[in-house]
Sugar ABC transporter permease
Amino acid sequence: MGTPPMTQLEDSVRQVADKAPAAGTTPSPVRRRGGKDGLIGYLFMSPWIAGFLLLTAGPMVASLYFAFTDYNLFDSPKWIGLGNFSEMFADPRWRTSVEVTAKYVLIGTPLKLLLALGVALLLAQSRRGQAFYRAAFYAPSLVGASVSVAIVWRALFSDDAVVDRAQTFLGMDVGGWIGDPAWILYCLVALTVWQFGAPMVIFLAGLKQVPKELYEAAQVDGAGPWRRFWHITLPMISPVMFFNVLLETIHSFQIFGSAYIMSNGSCGPADATLVYTCYLYQQGFENSRMGFASAMAWMLLIAVGLVTAVLFWSQRRWVHYEEAAR
C-alpha cells in the first residue's frame, strides 16, 4: 500500500522546515560570482577611461595649474599666483572680447530659436513633401560649422559680392559686411541663425507630444490661434524650449571657427569679431602665452557655469513639467 496523501504532505513540510534557518539566525548570503565579471567590464570600458583621463581630465588639471603660472610652451612654467587673472581684468582687449561674445549670444541665440520654432510649427502640420522639407531645413546644421561654409559665407558678404550687389540693387549702399566693423558681427549672427535645423528637430519632437484634445477643447471654447499657441503650445513644450535655450546658449559661448575664418584670422576688423575663444587662441597659440590662455579658459568655464545655473534657477518660473502638474 502507498503512503497516504496527508503523510506525503507532512513529510514535504518537515523537509522544508529542516532546511530553513533557525529562528534568530542570519541566513547565509547568496554567493556571487567572483571579480572576473567586473574585470571584464573594466576591460571593455578601458578605452573610454583612458580617453577621459588622457584627453579630458588630464588636460583640465594641467590647464588649472598653468592658469596660475607664466608658461610660454617653451620654458618651464613659473608660478605667479593670480597674476594672469589680474592682467586679464585690466586688459582692454579682454573686455572687448567679453562684450563681443555677450552681444553675439544675446542676439544670435534668440533669433535662432525663434526661427527654429517658427519652422517647426509649419512642419508640424501635415502636408505633401513633409519629409523633404524637414531634411532640407535640417541640412545646414550638418555642414554649417565646417570651414568650407565659413569661406563661402565670407565670399557672399564681401565687397562687390552677391549680398553687396543685392543691397545696391535695392538702393542700400551699405557695402560688404565683411570689411565693415559695424556689420561683420551680424554676418556671424546670420550664419548661426541659418543653422537652425538641430533645435528645429527638437521643437518638432516636442510639438508632436502635445495632445490634440487640448487644441480641440480650446477651439470649442472659442480660443483663437494665438491664444491656443500662448496658453497650450508654449506651456506644453516649455521643457523642450528650456533644453534648446540651454544647449544653444552654451554653443554660442564656444563660437570660434566661423569668426576666425571670416575675419581671415585677425578677429577683426577693429576687433569687431574678437569673440572670447578667438582672443584665447591668439594669446595661447599666436603669442605663446599658454598660462594666460588657460586662465581665460577657466574664466569662460566659470561664466558658462553661472549662466547655466541662472537658467536652471529661472526654469521654475516658466518651465511646466507634466509630473509637477499632477
In short: The CA atoms of residues 123 and 289 lie 49 Å apart. The mean pLDDT is 86.
